[in-house]
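All the exercises in this workshop are built on plain-text protein records. The record below serves as our worked example for the rest of this section.
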Amino acid sequence: MKLPKVSAVIAAAVLAPAVLFPSSASAADSPQPAGVSGPDTASDKPDDAGHQDAGDQEKRDRAEVQRILADKESGRGVRDAAGKALKGGAAELRHFLEVELPKQRADDDRVMLGRIMAEGGPAVKAAAGKALDGTYADVVKFLKEGQFTARAEDEDRAKVQAILADKECGRGVREAGEKALKGDAAAVRHFLEVELPRQRADDNRVKVAQILSAATGRGVKEAAIQAMNGTDADVVTFLTKGWATAQAEDDRVAVLRLMADKDCGRGVREAGSKALDGTAADVRRFLETGYAEARQDDDRVKLSQIMDVGGPAVKAAAGKALSGTYADVVKFLKEGQFTARAQDEADAARKPAQDRTPDAKPAAQPESGQGQGVQPAAVTTTTGTTGTAGTTGTTGTTGTATGTTTAGTAATATSARPGQLAATGTDGLGWEAGGAAAAVAAGAALVAVSRRRRSAGS
């Protein structure tokens, strides 16, 4: 039985798509690369009359290539091939969608993986290298999931490393962190979520205990004890705020004590007052460096003052200290000045004794009786003679001899220096007393001679 002519035409129209476009069907059945949408095959259906318009298919292919080209996720290889296909006809468009697109996308994905591997951390590098050694499906899986898991691990490790690099990191946190870094991603995550808070709380309490042990001020001690008796949050509050507040108050008390010291100099007082008028940092800076600098200046000023009023030994020792270090200055003020003063006092005590040695020698007796050296003898002789002059004759002579012996002894014992009276020690009467004594002695001698002559004449 022959088919009608119209039925043959319809059958040809139905079979045409399968004959003309076999690759499209196979491409639709094959697995597509990640993130790639295949050509729009759902619209490749014959119209109601059973006809397929080749011009419409080309338009749909061109639109799909343009969409792929505009996709920001498309790599360089895909873009270059898509741009080239758009310059061609329907065959070039279809070839790109069926052949070039999967090939170029696979190459672009491997290039992207290599870039991620180069810029990633240890975990990313390891996962990317493993994907590159596998199939294209492994590459796609890394780009979709693996890279993010590896990046999270690297970020966690970076966090742990940053915690360990912090100078405030305690011993407990450090030991637990180093142990976690030697493990896998799960160990690192466990440290961050579980170990870190617990170890940090213990380290904080250890730190408060150390602050309490080293504290010298009352405020810090009381605040630290209160924190230790509280919660972990109280400990953190003390370390972040309370400690600084209490330390500032204790520092001000310390400055006031230094200024009240009796040995405090002008420089220390001025620097301390200036610090107290400033901030807590100014007060702390004074205690750490300012006080020592001001004290050194004050000690050097004090040394200079001692040097100005000191004796030879003090001046020499002070000058040597000033030319040396600050330790030399301190040593002089504590010890050297007293040793030098003792030496100056000893030298001063010996000097008068040396001055008295020449005066203690007996004075020379001039023949003519001139000069101060003869005055003690004249005074001594006259003392005995004058005492007997009011009496008579022989008794006076005898008295003269006796008086001479006694007065001579007294003169020898009391003659500290010329011109001083034996009995009173009065200065300035040597010449006057000597002249009067000589006159009395001469008169007594004349009387005695006159009496002898009378006796001889009678």
